[in-house]
Design a protein that fits this description.
The complex is a heterodimer of chains A (160) and B (182). Chain A is 65% helix and 0% strand. Chain A has 160 residues and is mainly alpha-helical. Classes of the chains: A mainly alpha (160), B alpha/beta (182). Chain A binds chain B through residues 10-15, 17, 21-23, 25-26, 29, 37, 40-41, 44-45, 48-49, 51-52, 54, and chain B through 1-3, 7-8, 10-11, 14-15, 18, 20-22, 25, 55-56, 59, 63-68.
Amino acid sequence: MMGMVTHAPIPPFERFYLAHRDEVLGYLRRLLGQRAEDAWQETFLRALRAYDRLQHGRHLRAWVFTIATNVAMDELRAKPVNGLHEGDEPAVELRQDAFRELEHLTHDLPPTERAAVVLRYGYDLPYAQIADALGSSEDAARAAASSGVRRLRREHAGHA
Amino acid sequence: MQVTPELDARFRTAALGESLVDVRYDLVDSPVGPLFVAATDRGLCRISYSPEHGEELVVRDFGVRLLRSPLDDVRRELDEYFEGRRRDFDLALDLRVAAFHADVLRELAAVPYGLTTTYGALARQVGRPSAARAVGTVMNRNPIPIVLPCHRVVGANGALTGYAGGLDIKRHLLRLEGAALV
């Protein structure tokens, strides 16, 4: 016996869908605004296409956020938002209440930073899972969120 | 952020249109309580008196890509049956059971509306005269009650004996059909 392997059964798709459809739509609204509905449908169709190949039922929330992020990135890259890449600066973090004040400015962030910031502060995902969603390393995910936060603060100061 | 009913319906339609769904299900109100009904592309595959267990049952037998979706034909034929306007069902069935079960259920399907038969009689009809008890097991596991009328099977002495949905429901169905009860 292997032992210690927790068996996480895959829930029926309907249950998975009901558990996540609203927050995924919210997430895509934050990333895409009015373009969110088509991306939302595409996200769950992609999830359904892959669903019978899942090996276990762990991390399904992070999994669907990953799919949603991929769909949103495709959409955002098709209509890019310009932004300069930041150099190596120390990581900055943001409190959730501070994020709520700045959130309306996330639309001006480059796609990867926008997804990283929203997943981190809007949905409280750990960087390991954000890295999966972005298809990057954990360090790169942290750097993207950090860079996004700095950009938000600058924007905020500019508006103040 | 709540998904609107329109957006939800659009997704379900798209998912079915792409044939991405193993099995779809719906809940149908009836005089004997809510019924869980499920179908594959091939036909009706499950009716259950326990909606809370229905999902697990069909996922185990037909696949994990389960989606709720209206099953209009099933709903309509069940409504007509419970209103006394339908004696036979015209629904295609997707029956995935062992050979003995399939043989017994085929004989069961031929038991006419309003009549009863016995476990022993069904056993004889499938060429296993001593298998009345096994026939009872087949009835007990009948995946599509009502449509496959296991409520029409009674004990040798005419006693109702048992029913997955409970004896009250068995009695209700037989009364609805005008069967003579002991």
